[in-house]
Amino acid sequence: MSCLFCKIVDGSIPSTAVYQDEFCYAFADLNPKAPVHVLVAPREHIGSLEETGEGDRALLGHLMWAAARIARDKGLAKGYRVVVNTGQDGGQSVDHLHVHLLGGRQLTWPPG
Ligand code: 5GP
Ligand code: ZN
Question: Which CATH class is domain 4-103?
Fold first, then answer.
């Protein structure tokens, strides 16, 4: 198995765990873009949002729920952003679906 985030999920590549359950594993981004920068990835390998289908609706909701839970745990009461970069134009660099949770500073809009 060559997928970087599958290896992080199964523990063969170390990471700083932030939250985990049956469906997802959340860990600190190695190159954080904000004081809080967490990645929430499904345990199951899904390449991107573009590869999801009808059967993934509950899992996708779960990832969003997990991001909100982590944001509360991190005390991001002033707000935060969740982002799913998808495909080449979306700036996705790791081909295993993940939700970015960014917070702890004023974020600008629009993103680049
Ligand atoms: P993408 O560009 O695909 O939306 O996001 C990939 C994210 O994964 C980037 O923010 C990058 O910093 C992070 N990342 C890449 N390699 C590693 C790694 O080995 N460990 C961790 N914790 N994060 C990584
Ligand atoms: Zn994977």
Answer: alpha beta
